[in-house]
């Protein structure tokens, strides 16, 4: 995407900005499209200011080298109170609204700490260079050496939020956290929600139980503060979540540690999170062909403005919409796609690959509902552990209802896959009639995610036919499972493969216990490990995504340059190596 600024001229301190700011960003509860009467609060003064700074930086520095990252500017910690900083900004010398590179650099240096300076490296106490019992099945010396390097990356990625953030929250968009955390890496310099699940899977393989538990403690603190787990621990992520995997994190930690205290203190937070996902904005009722009404859930961010961390792109993308309400609706769909974790993908487009047709809130997603059945079962399990039998029974019952709903609304008996369902509209408080032909028949890795959950992987005849379907889907490529079959230029599409998708499918296949499924799982894992290894040898780093069409190449596309580090990729490689090992005599090459 090229960043153009065609529809509005943003000048530094003229009224153009203020008017624009007012008309677009001030929204009332009675906005035309029905979104459950959801009021969207204005950004905090700090965020509004940092977005102005971001826009000026974009105009001053440009993006000719493709290195401009708008997120950097909303991450900058202040050195002085906002009023002082804003005053200095207003007074920057400018020529007809534009600030020189030199003046802006001087201002940035004098008034801000660096992005990420408020979240510092921390040596995890439970890290040892080679933990006892580490990946016992990895016999190949070079793979073992590499696995130990990947393991050592937890040191690079463990952070602590500075006390200054809690003391002066108005100086930081970073949110204070009670414990240490592990970040994905590069521009993702804060803790993220669904990434943390695979980070934790890796930490468990690395025997770093305290570091894993600390992440969960942080996410619970976000629920206590905001009512749900934020997309990430930043002030600009307070109005959307991400795929709900906190209960799955706690479950995995509990399996390794039998930490009943953790389960006890998590349960109230999980119940609160469950309410968030079942609130009006996320809930949809479907009347199926047999006359049964089902309740399922969708992504929907409480946001109808440009995402602050990417507002340059979002404004440019929205520039062809003429009305304020169309722009607001589009911004909501963009933020909701971010809530899905799949930002961005043809999965959410009514007319792929046309980005302006994003309609995330009109999709009932297979994977979200699979995660929620997992959450229901985990809550039932935790309730049982803590002796709360009635809560346990209640959640078992609702998981049964969701299973029926998933079978009725998503399952496609011809394709032997679960397909996302398109709503006519994204209206709330209305029962939608299930209609043939509204299932999205395009191939996505998410069509197989239910396999990851017990109600589905434990049904061996079902797994048998889904395995056949996966094998012939076209999604299995040289270096792993493709996200989709559409090469749209978006990062959650072909030819990218993502660690979490590989992991969920592999683990589901494996847990089915079916021989054929197990060998497919191992095949995918070997391809994935191989490409991660070859790319690491070539580039010296772990990447956030890989090109599954070409073994030994990392992925691209999307709205920012490819990132390295990388939390969930490291986690999945370690989890796969723990499960499958690597024999001494198996070559590793593409
Ligand atoms: C957006 O998030 C902020 C901070 O959590 C909250 O105060 C506000 O109510 C949220 N907006 C909506 C519409 O929920
Ligand atoms: C100042 O900026 C405006 C808007 O971009 C432009 O139309 C005008 O020509 C500029 N004036 C000068 C003197 O550069
Ligand atoms: C806006 O519309 C023009 C003309 O159809 C098109 O070329 C351009 O790509 C569109 N811009 C965006 C951001 O969609
Ligand atoms: C993309 O979709 C928008 C909104 O429906 C439409 O106005 C535009 O013409 C489409 N662009 C292309 C290139 O098809
Ligand atoms: C909960 O159920 C278990 C058996 O499933 C039983 O042993 C226990 O006494 C029950 N607890 C309560 C509080 O009813
Ligand atoms: C990890 O951190 C060490 C020490 O700071 C550094 O030398 C190394 O390059 C880092 N590795 C990666 C892959 O970022």
What is the strand and helix layout of this fold?
Elements (H helix, E strand, L loop, with lengths): L14 H11 L19 H17 L8 H5 L7 H9 L10 H11 L7 E3 L19 H17 E4 L1 H5 L13 E2 L10 H13 L3 H18 L19 H12 L2 H18 L5 E5 L5 E5 L13 H7 L6 H17 L22 E2 L1 H20 L3 H21 L1 E2 L4 E2 L2 E2 L8 E3 L20 H4 L2 H12 L4 E2 L2 E2 L14 E2 L1 H13 L3 H25 L6 E2 L19 H14 L10
Parallel strand pairs: 4-10
Antiparallel strand pairs: 1-2, 2-3, 4-5, 6-9, 7-8, 11-12, 13-14
Helix pairs in contact: 6-20, 8-9, 8-10, 8-20, 9-10, 9-11, 10-11, 10-14, 11-14, 14-15, 18-19, 18-20, 19-20
Bound molecules: 2-acetamido-2-deoxy-beta-D-glucopyranose (6 copies).
The site of one 2-acetamido-2-deoxy-beta-D-glucopyranose has 2 residues, from loops.
């Amino acid at each position: 995407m090229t960043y153009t600024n065609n529809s509005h001229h943003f000048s530094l301190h003229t009224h153009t900005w203020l008017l624009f700011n007012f008309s677009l960003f001030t929204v009332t509860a009675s906005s035309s499209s029905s979104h459950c009467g959801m009021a969207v609060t204005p950004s905090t003064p700090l965020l509004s200011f940092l977005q102005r700074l971001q826009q000026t930086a974009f105009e001053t520095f440009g993006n000719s080298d493709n290195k401009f990252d708008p997120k950097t500017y909303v991450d900058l910690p202040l050195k002085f109170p906002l009023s002082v900083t804003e005053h200095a900004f207003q007074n920057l010398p400018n020529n007809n609204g534009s600030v020189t590179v030199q003046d802006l650099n001087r201002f940035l240096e004098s008034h801000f700490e660096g992005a990420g300076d408020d979240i510092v490296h921390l040596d995890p106490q439970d890290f040892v260079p080679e933990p006892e019992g580490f990946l016992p099945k990895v016999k190949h010396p070079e793979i073992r050496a590499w696995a130990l390097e990947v393991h050592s990356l937890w040191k690079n990625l463990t952070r602590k939020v500075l006390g200054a953030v809690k003391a002066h929250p108005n100086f930081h968009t970073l949110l204070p956290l009670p414990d240490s955390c592990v970040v994905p890496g590069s521009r993702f310099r804060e803790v993220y929600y669904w990434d943390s699940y695979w980070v934790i899977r890796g930490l468990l393989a690395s025997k770093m139980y305290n570091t894993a538990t600390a992440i969960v403690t942080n996410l619970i603190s976000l629920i206590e503060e905001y009512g749900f787990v934020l997309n990430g621990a930043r002030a600009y992520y307070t109005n959307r979540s991400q795929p709900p995997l906190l209960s799955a994190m706690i479950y995995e930690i509990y399996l390794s540690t039998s930490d009943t205290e953790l389960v006890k203190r998590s349960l109230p937070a999980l119940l609160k999170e469950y309410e968030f996902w079942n609130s009006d904005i996320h809930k949809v009722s479907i009347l199926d062909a047999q006359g049964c009404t089902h309740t399922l859930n969708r992504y929907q961010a409480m946001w109808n403005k440009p995402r602050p961390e990417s507002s340059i792109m979002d404004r440019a993308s929205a520039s062809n919409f003429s009305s304020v309400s169309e722009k607001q609706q589009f911004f909501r769909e963009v933020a909701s796609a971010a809530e899905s974790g799949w930002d961005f993908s043809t999965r959410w487009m009514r007319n792929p690959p046309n980005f302006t047709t994003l309609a995330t809130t009109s999709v009932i997603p297979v994977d979200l509902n699979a995660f929620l059945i997992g959450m229901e079962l985990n809550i039932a399990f935790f309730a049982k552990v803590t002796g709360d039998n009635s809560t346990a029974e209640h959640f078992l019952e609702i998981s049964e209802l969701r299973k029926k709903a998933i079978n009725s609304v998503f399952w496609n008996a011809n394709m032997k896959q679960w397909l996302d369902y398109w709503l006519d509209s994204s209206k709330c408080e209305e029962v939608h009639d299930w209609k043939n032909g509204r299932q999205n028949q395009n191939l996505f890795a998410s069509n197989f995610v239910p396999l990851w959950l017990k109600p589905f992987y434990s049904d061996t005849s079902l797994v048998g036919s889904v395995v056949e379907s996966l094998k012939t889907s076209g999604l299995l490529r040289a270096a792993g499972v493709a996200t989709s079959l559409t090469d749209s230029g978006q990062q959650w599409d072909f030819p990218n493969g993502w660690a979490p998708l590989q992991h969920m499918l592999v683990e589901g296949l494996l847990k089915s216990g079916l021989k054929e499924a197990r060998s497919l799982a191992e095949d995918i894992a070997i391809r994935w490990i191989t490409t991660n290894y070859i790319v690491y040898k070539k580039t010296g780093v772990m990447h956030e995504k890989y090109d599954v069409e070409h073994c030994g190449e990392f992925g691209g596309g999307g709205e920012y340059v490819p990132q390295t580090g990388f939390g969930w990729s490291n986690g999945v490689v370690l989890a796969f190596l723990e499960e499958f090992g690597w024999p001494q005599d198996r070559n590793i090459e593409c």
